[in-house]
Backbone:
């Protein structure tokens, strides 16, 4: 039987790796934004156009832009709105280049350039009745719209919390400041729900960038370092909980059980996804017949995974219900991001020291995190399994790469568990949360993610795209690894099979 390293290596001959790239925005996405988020564009004065060009591009090419965006009622947003919400000096005008527009399944957003100071800010609008994906949910899974509406209240509550501010100022984790949020959930008619957010921007002009998937070891470690700090800061018994008011605020702000992938958040057509794995495997595996049909698990992976899906779902998300498992896992309880895919990560290189010649030789890679819709209490290992499975390229995970990253994360977590007061010293930390315990939780969470991938998310697979395909990468920037990289599909399926075998399934 071929090993996972051999299988991925063979596939890699067909899909070559490449270096980083510049992400274009498709014309369809731009036009969609013009029609749904922007008001009718007014002529832009020459001076303003010169400012746009100077700020958003290094070439003399003119950048299509509009100078008015709409609020939730379809009214133009004035420059004074930004002055008031951001508490900044006079904003004479603003512009929104089409290339900085974004269209997701459940939102529209744009980068706003404020003049004359050339500051940027991020504006996000969610109007369910204007989103085709929301309309489809209303037809087949209306409860998901209620769930999604709550997820936006979670974002607003968490971003304004003491917990979020302490992450920024005490743990030095980069999460965007929230300048404004408007929440209009409609419980009686969820499709009428509307939300908008004005956030601090992780902008390219400030050095921030993203990757299609994480491959570089420094970027992978930087992300894991950041997750370790977050998980340790809110670990059960840490210093954070000495502030009872802040602790109660956090508890009320986020999901009782975080994570986008958990079974209770993924009821498909009225049926729990844990019961659909076997049937969906028989259908969806055909998309990858050329790459997967030679595997030993081709005929039986679905039924084998389904046999453990319910148990794995409960163990990976122990705080979803008030029962004995919830109590037993309290000592591992922490805050989890809930959707740590690569699209929610930003990176920036910053100097850490000055040299005599004025050149910074030592650079630190900073990490910015966005999208806290699915944040809640959970297990650190579940968050990390989600990150590894959805955000890291398979090339980085084979030949011992996954094990190296997991050991790095665990070592960082242990360090910060002591620093943030969850445990008194290193000895207590390793006794209370051993690497073996972490890996057992990680493996269970990985199988739980495979359950959702097969039962649901593979319906969004976007074709065989790899890093050298700039247009394809731009189109799938917001997609998870297993929905765009065939190498990651092979890696995920092979690892799932190996884990099941190790458990006698």
Residues:
């Amino acid at each position: 039987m071929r090993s996972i390293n051999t299988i991925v290596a063979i596939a890699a001959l067909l899909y070559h790796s490449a270096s980083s790239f510049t992400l274009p925005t498709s014309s369809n996405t731009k036009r969609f934004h013009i029609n749904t988020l922007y008001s009718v564009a007014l002529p832009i004065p020459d001076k303003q156009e010169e400012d746009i060009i100077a700020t958003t591009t290094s070439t003399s090419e003119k950048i299509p832009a509009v100078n008015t965006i709409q609020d939730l009622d379809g009214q133009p947003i004035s420059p004074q709105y930004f002055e008031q919400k951001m508490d900044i000096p006079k904003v004479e005008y603003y512009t929104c280049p089409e290339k900085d527009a974004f269209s997701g399944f459940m939102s529209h957003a744009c980068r706003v350039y404020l003049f004359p100071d050339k500051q940027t800010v991020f504006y996000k609008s969610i109007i369910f009745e204007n989103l085709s994906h929301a309309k489809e949910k209303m037809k087949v899974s209306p409860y998901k719209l209620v769930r999604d509406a709550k997820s936006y209240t979670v974002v607003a509550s968490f971003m304004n919390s003491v917990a979020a501010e302490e992450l920024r100022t005490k743990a030095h984790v980069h999460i965007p400041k929230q300048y404004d949020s408007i929440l209009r959930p409609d419980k009686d008619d969820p499709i009428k729900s509307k939300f908008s957010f004005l956030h601090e921007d992780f902008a390219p002009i400030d050095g921030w960038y993203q990757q299609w998937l994480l491959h570089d070891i420094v970027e992978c470690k930087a992300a894991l370092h950041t997750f370790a700090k977050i998980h340790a800061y809110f670990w059960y018994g840490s210093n954070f909980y000495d502030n009872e008011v802040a602790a109660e605020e956090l508890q009320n702000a986020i999901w009782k059980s975080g994570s986008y992938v958990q079974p209770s958040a993924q009821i498909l057509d009225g049926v729990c996804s844990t019961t659909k794995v076997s049937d969906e495997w028989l259908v969806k595996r055909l998309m990858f017949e050329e790459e997967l049909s030679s595997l030993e698990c081709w005929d039986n992976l679905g039924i084998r995974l389904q046999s453990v899906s319910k148990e794995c779902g409960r163990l990976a998300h122990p705080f979803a219900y008030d029962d004995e498992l919830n109590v037993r896992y309290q000592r591992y309880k922490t805050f989890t991001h809930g959707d740590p895919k690569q699209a929610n990560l930003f990176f920036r290189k910053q100097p850490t020291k000055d040299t005599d010649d004025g050149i910074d030789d030592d650079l630190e890679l900073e990490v910015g995190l966005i999208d806290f819709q699915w944040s809640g209490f959970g297990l650190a290992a579940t968050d990390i399994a989600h990150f590894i499975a959805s955000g890291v390229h398979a090339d980085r995970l084979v030949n011992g790469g996954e094990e190296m990253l997991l050991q790095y994360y665990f070592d960082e977590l242990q360090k910060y568990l002591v620093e943030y007061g969850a445990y008194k010293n290193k000895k207590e930390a390793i006794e209370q949360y051993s690497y073996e315990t972490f890996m057992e939780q990680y493996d269970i969470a990985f199988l739980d993610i495979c359950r959702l991938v097969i039962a649901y998310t593979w319906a969004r697979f976007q074709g065989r795209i790899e890093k050298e395909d700039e247009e394809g990468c731009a189109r799938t920037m917001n997609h998870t690894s297993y929905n765009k990289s065939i190498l990651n599909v092979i890696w995920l399926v092979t690892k799932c099979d190996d884990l099941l075998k190790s458990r006698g399934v």
